[in-house]
Specification:
Layout: H1 2-15, E1 21-44, H2 47-55, E2 67-70, E3 73-82, E4 88-98, E5 104-108, E6 113-120, E7 123-129, H3 154-157, E8 166-171, E9 177-183, H4 202-211, E10 214-221, E11 225-232, H5 242-246, E12 250-263, E13 266-277, E14 291-301, E15 304-318, E16 324-339, E17 344-358, E18 361-379, E19 382-397, E20 401-417
Antiparallel strand pairs: 1-2, 1-3, 1-20, 3-4, 4-5, 4-6, 6-7, 7-8, 8-9, 9-10, 10-11, 11-12, 12-13, 13-14, 14-15, 15-16, 16-17, 17-18, 18-19, 19-20
């Protein structure tokens, strides 16, 4: 894959001398949590659970020492160019990271490194690391700075097509219709589990190719309503060796959804994800759930803007007899921002609940979060923010008791772009 990106980068930079439209963009973001601490309250039904909680440093009525934590400061650099007729071009994104201690955190390709070709209005071909967002959800959270309390994002509604080292083909045969397909044609590398050597096996390569395929369509009616459906291959569950790959029972997932522009300023999006397994008893990991449904709403009116989500997931697990069972996980979040003359006031709230089984005990977890903040523009496309945030998690386990953890912190941060 490194050779592929070197080829794309070298070709793009060489070709850029012939491009008529060249642009460079820079953006960045960083945040810290000041006075960050958690308090604990326990209401255990038996002594052993009480002792275990105290050993973890979560004694009833205690709290952790307040601390200040710094996150990474991320700088993004975007280079793009196209020919005068806008039929050929490239995009290259680079990310420079300063770690939490102020040191060099590395340079990476966070989003795209691609060459694209659009000879006609109804076809677009791309090669490299590619984001295809024609079907992706558009209602996310408020950004990297204020997502701490668990707001859902665009991919929770409907995933983007995102080949890491492959090809994307997009077709627009009639107005409002999108048909797309992507695949990772250049990886990943598979290792023999006995020798440790790179496995040169066309059958394994073909299976990886198949598992990387994404294909879908969307149809938009009068710019008001879009219906969409897609199949996503099992690329996230590819294994490192041949035997595990061949034993994989995960066959990708289906996604169905629609977008409805209720009016000029208000949008509703709904998406459903259904993982496909050939053996339900082997459902595992992030794709072990039976299905997931997420709805998002967003809109604005004068100085007020809002967005929110509601989600339900039927998560896999085991019942008290050890048999496969499904447990509900659900959540809601909402946020508003109101722009004043010199600054913006904002707030977010969320709730998440889950029911599960731990051994032979039922477990119920409820999480509540809230944050209020002020955002101040200090220059064009540059702002700072400060707020107050709190999350409360209550875990109640049958025959053991209840544990409550309350976390408070002051978020501070900056974002810029030019």
């Amino acid at each position: 894959m490194k050779k592929l990106f070197a080829f794309i980068l070298g070709g793009a930079l060489t070709a850029s001398f012939a491009f008529a439209d060249i642009s460079v963009g820079v953006s960045g973001r960083g945040a810290a949590r000041v006075f960050d601490f958690s308090g604990y309250n326990n209401d255990y039904d038996n002594e052993s659970a009480k002792i275990a909680g105290e050993l973890e440093g979560k004694k009833d009525g205690s709290h952790s020492s307040p601390a200040t934590t710094f996150g990474e400061f991320v700088h993004d650099f975007n280079f793009s160019a196209s020919t005068e007729d806008n039929k050929l071009g490239f995009n290259l994104d680079l990310e420079y990271v300063v770690d939490s201690e102020g040191g060099f955190g590395g340079i990476s390709l966070p989003d795209q490194a691609k060459v694209w070709w659009q000879p006609t209005d109804w076809f677009l071909g791309q090669i490299g690391m590619i984001e295809v967002d024609d079907l992706r959800g558009t209602i996310g959270d408020w950004g990297n700075d204020r997502r701490d309390i668990g707001s859902l994002g665009e991919d929770d509604i409907f995933d983007r097509f995102y080949p890491q080292a492959g090809i994307a083909l997009s077709f627009y045969p009639v107005e409002g219709l999108f048909i797309g397909a992507t695949f990772d044609a250049f990886g990943p590398v598979i290792y023999d589990d006995e020798t440790g050597n790179v496995l040169d096996d066309s059958a394994v390569w073909a299976e990886n190719f198949y598992k990387s395929i994404n294909v879908g369509f969307g149809y938009t009616i009068d710019d008001k309503f879009q219906i969409k459906a897609a199949y996503f291959g099992a690329k996230d569950n590819k294994k490192a060796d041949k035997d595990e790959l061949e034993d994989d029972d995960f066959n990708g997932k289906l996604e169905l959804g629609f977008n409805w522009n209720i009016n000029e300023n208000n949008l509703l999006e709904v998406g459903v994800k259904v993982p496909l397994w050939s053996d339900n008893d082997k459902r595992d990991g992030e794709d072990g759930y039976l299905f997931q449904a997420v709805a998002g709403v967003a809109g604005e009116n004068d100085n007020l803007s809002y967005k929110g989500h509601a989600a339900y997931r039927s998560m896999n697990g085991a019942d008290k007899d050890g048999d496969l069972a499904y447990f509900p996980v659900f959540g809601v979040d909402a946020g508003v921002e109101y722009a004043l003359d010199n600054f913006t006031l904002g707030g977010t709230v969320n709730y998440g609940g889950s029911f599960n089984n731990v051994g032979e005990q039922n477990e119920i977890t409820n999480t509540f979060g809230a944050e209020v903040y002020i955002k101040k523009d200090v220059a064009a496309d540059c702002f700072v923010f400060a707020g107050i945030a709190d999350t409360l998690t209550i875990t109640d386990v049958e025959d053991i008791g209840k544990h409550t953890e309350n976390r408070f912190y002051i978020p501070l941060g900056i974002e810029y772009a030019f």
